[in-house]
Amino acid sequence: MDLFSEYGSAILEAFGLTLRLAVFSGIFSLILGVVLAVFRVSPVPVLRWIGAAVVYTFRNTPLTLVMFFALFGLFYQLKIGASQTAPLNEQNFQLAVIALSVYTSTFVCEVLRSGINTVPLGQAEAARAIGLTFSQNLRLVVLPQALRSVLNPLASVMIAMIKNTTVAVTIGVVTAKGVNEASGQMRTMMENEADQIVLIFIIFAIGFMILTLPVGFLAGWASKKFAVIR
Amino acid sequence: MKFKKIAAVVGAFALAGSLAACGGSDDSGSDAGGDKITIGIKFDQPGLGFKKADGTYAGFDVDMATYIAEGLGYEEDQITWKEAVSANRETFLKDGTVDMILATYSITDERKAEVDFAGPYYVAGQDLLIRADDSSIKGPEDMKGKKICSVTGSTSAQKVKDEYGAVPQEFDSYSKCITALQGGQIDALTTDDIILAGYAEEFPGEFKIVGQPFSEENYGVGLPKGSEDRDKINDLIEQSFEDGAWEKAFNDNLGNSGYELPEPPKVDRY
After folding, report:
1. Residue B34: what pLDDT?
2. pLDDT tens across A87-118, in order?
C-alpha cells in the first residue's frame, strides 16, 4: 500500500483536476446544448442549418482531434480560445474545456431534441392558440417537459463526458503544481511502478466510478421525482 | 485468491486494449525457440525504432535487435516486429506477446522485479533539444520559466518539473512536441539524448542538442523473467562493441545528427 503513501496526494489532485474539467465542461455543454437544440427546432431555416452543421461536424469527429485542433489550430495558429497572458496550464485547461464542451453539447442537443419529440404536438399547438410566441412556447411549455423526460439519457451523456476528460491528456492539461489529470497521472505511475500496474488500473477505475456513479443515481432519482405524468 | 482472479480479468482487459491499440498484423504470437522470434520495438521514434512508409523498419534499436537475433540463430526474415509502446512493455514480456524488447527501455529496479534485462547496450542521458537559432539555452539551469515539452508520464517529464523550474507542456507523443517547437510555442523538448538525436537527424539543420546530459539511463534488452538467452545476449552485446556492429548501427541511423557516439557501456551481468 505504499502506492498511497507515495502518490496519495497526487492522485487526489489529479482527480480534482478531472472533476474541475468535468464541472466546467458539464455546465458549458448543457448551456450550449440547449442553444443548439433551440436552433434545430426553430422556425428560422438559417438557425436550423447552423444547428445541424455544428451537430454533424462535432458529433462525428473524434474528440482527440477536436482537442488537438483546439490547441494547435485555434490557439497556436489563430491565437484564440484562451487568454494569451494566462499561465500555460490555465491556457490548456481552458482549451480542453472548450473542446469537451462543444463536443458534448452536440450529444446534449440530440438528447434534448428527442425529448422535445416526446411532448405531444397538441401542447405546442395549444400554446400557440393562446398567443404564446415561439420563445415563450419553448421556455414555458415544451422545454420543461422535454428536459424532465430525458434526465436519464442526459446523465449517460454526462457520464460519458466525465470519462472523456481523460482525452485532455493529449494536450497535457496539468494543475499549477504540474500534476496531470487522472489519465496522465496514471501513466506517470505506470512508468515509475511497473511492477504494480494491475493495482494502478484498479485505483483509477474506482476513482472514475466514484465520480460517475452518483451522476447515474442522481438522474434515476430525479427522473422519478420529476416524471411528467400524462 | 480472489484478488488473483480479479487481477487476471483486469489483465485480460489491459491486453485487449493494448492489442487493439497496436492494430499491426500479429499472426505469429509467441513461439520462442521455434523458427520465429518476435521483437518489441518502438514504431514512432526516428533513428531508434521507426516504421517507414513502405512498411520496413529502421533505427539503432532495430539494427541492434537484428544483430542479436542473428546471433541467436534467426535469419532476418524470421523476425516479427511488434510495436511496444512504453506502457505495454512489461505486459508484453510477461504474457509472451514478444520474446524480447529493444525499445529505449531503461533498466530500473522496479522493472527488474518484473522482467529480466540484458545489457545495457547504450547509456543515454536526458538532454534538451532546441531550435538551431536559439542561443539563450546552454544547459538545464537556463530553463527556468521556459516552456519545455515532454511526453506525459515519462521520467524526463517528471524530472524537469521537479528540478529545473521550467513550465511543462506535456503531449502524448514526441511528434507533437516537435511541431510546437518548430512553431515557437515551446522552447525545448526534453528526453534521452539519443531520442533527440533521432529528431535532429530527421530535420537536418532545424534543431540542435544542448549537450549537457543531466541523468543517466541504461538501455537494456528486456527479456521475460528467467530467460535462458540472457547470458548469450550479453555476450552478443559485448561482441557488437568489439566487431564494430554497434558503432555501425549508430552511424547508419544517427550519424548526421551532430550528436557524437559515446563510449560503449559495460554490460551488467546481475
Report:
1. 56
2. 888 999 999 999 999 999 999 999 999 999 99
**Domain formed by B126-209, architecture:** 3-Layer(aba) Sandwich (3.40)
CA distance A169 to chain B (A): 7
**Domain range enclosing A9:** 2-225
- Which residue from A89, A178, A190 is facing B153, i.e. has the nearest CB? A190
Query: Among 2.60.120.380, 3.40.50.720, 1.10.150.20, 3.40.190.10, what is the CATH number of B24-123+219-254?
Result: 3.40.190.10
| B75-89 pLDDT per residue, tens | 988 999 999 988 789
Test mutation, A198, A199, A201, A202, chain B, max B CBs within 10 A: A198
Domain ranges within chain B, ordered by starting residue: 24-123+219-254, 126-209
Q: What is the ipTM of this complex?
A: 0.81
Q: Could you tell me the pTM of the whole model?
A: 0.81
User: What is the rounded CA–CA span in Å between residue B160 and residue B210?
Assistant: 15
Judge whether B59 and B49 are in contact, CB under 8 Å: yes
Q: Do domains B24-123+219-254 and B126-209 have the same CATH topology?
A: yes
Among B10, B161, B171, whose Cβ lies nearest the Cβ of A171? Answer: B171
Q: How far does Cα A113 stand from its chain's mean position? A: 17
Give a yes or no: residue A230 inside a domain.
Answer: no
CB-based contact A174 B86, cutoff 8 Å = no
| CATH value at residue A114 | 1.10.3720.10
- Between CA A137 and CA B196 the distance in angstroms is 62
Per the CB < 8 A criterion, the answer to whether B126 and B156 are in contact is yes
pLDDT at B2: 56
Distance from CA of B244 to the nearest CA of A (A): 33
Place of cell 563510449: B263
Give per-residue pLDDT as tens, B137-152.
Answer: 888 888 888 899 988 8
Would the CB atoms of A180 and B171 count as touching at under 8 Å?
no
Among A6, A191, A196, which would you mutate to test the B interface (most chain B Cβ atoms within 10 Å of its Cβ)?
Answer: A191
The mean pLDDT of A178-182, rounded to a whole number, is 88
Best mutation target, A189, A195, A206, to test chain B (most B CBs within 10 A): A195
Helix H or strand E encompassing B181: helix B174-183
Alpha helices, DSSP H only, in chain A? 2-41, 45-59, 63-68, 88-118, 121-129, 134-136, 143-149, 151-164, 182-192, 197-225
Inter-chain contacts counted by CB atoms under 8 A, chains A and B? 80
- The answer to whether A201 contacts B158, with C-beta atoms less than 8 Å apart, is no
- With 80 as the cut, is the pLDDT of residue B182 above it? yes
The domain tally of chain A equals: 1
For residue B110, which residues of chain A lie inside 8 Å, CB to CB? 192-195
Average pLDDT, chain A: 92
